[in-house]
Amino acid sequence: MNRPSPRTVRRLIGLAVLVLWEAVPRLGILPELFVPPLTKTLVVLWSDRLIYLSGLMVTLYEVAFAMLIACGAGIALGAVVGGVAVVRNLMLPVVSSLYAIPIVILYPIFTAWFGIGSESKIAFAGVYGFFPVMLSTAAGIRTIDEQYLLAARSMGATLPQLIARVIIPAAIPTVLAGLRLGGALTIIGVVVSEMLTSASGIGYLVTINRTILDSPRVFAAIIVVLLLSIMFDVAVRAIERRTLAWQNAGRRVASTEDVRAARLPAPATA
């Protein structure tokens, strides 16, 4: 008997979640205050679509600029840290330690510096997503085989050519993995900051409806956030498929001779 494909299993799990979402509150297993039925949530989302669309535009604006900070600064600094040994030895332990700190506790500092407008949310979310992008970029740069760099230099490659033809193809798979995590954290950072201090955005809609115990509208906002995260993940996966040929470009991989040598017993010594 053939096993179902992973895609089929994922679809069945998603369908089961949707069915349970509708059935559990309808059957009274959980109160609708905790989990409203899916159909009621979708009806509210459609009836208030203009309100949610307006909030989504604000959130998208903040996410876009926060992504520029997280991805731009993260990739740039990660390339420096991964490519320059002196900077790596100096900065990597510091950045790794900062990444372990819950960044959300620093949000009051951002509001003190930038106010309660979009600027504080963009800065906070940008920093929130910066660290995984930066660390993944640094790790990707470090996996490049130095022999490829030496061969490119010996053929007269300039620095721009070295970056475009060797470093980027070799590092981009790891960078995209960090970008997926950093982008998700950026979206989370924007929504959380909107929930804390804001008068617009999807996070604000979650907070304002939560205070009046309007669960269907809270879950409608959550659906919007989920759709935004799914769209971002689909976009990153599309880029990964286009760069599939670069997955092993310029990386340190063991050759067949190395593997065979590793399996052979060590020669006896006198």
Write structural notes for this entry.
With 270 residues, the protein is mostly helical. It has one domain: MetI-like (MetI-like fold, Orthogonal Bundle), CATH 1.10.3720. It has eleven helices and no strands. The protein is globular, with a radius of gyration of 24 Å. The C terminus is likely disordered.
CATH homology superfamily: MetI-like
What's the count of strands?
0
Q: Quote the average pLDDT.
A: 79
Rg (CA only): 24 Å
Structural class determined from secondary elements? mainly alpha
Name the CATH architecture.
Orthogonal Bundle
Largest sheet: none
The name CATH uses for the topology is MetI-like fold
Identify low-pLDDT runs: 250-270
**Percent strand:** under 5%
Give helix and strand order, one letter per element, not per position: HHHHHHHHHHH
- The percent of residues in helical segments reads over 70%
Q: Tell me the distance between the termini.
A: 57 Å
Task: Please tell me the total number of domains.
Answer: 1
Put simply, the count of helices is: 11
What's the CATH C level?
Mainly Alpha
Molecular shape: globular
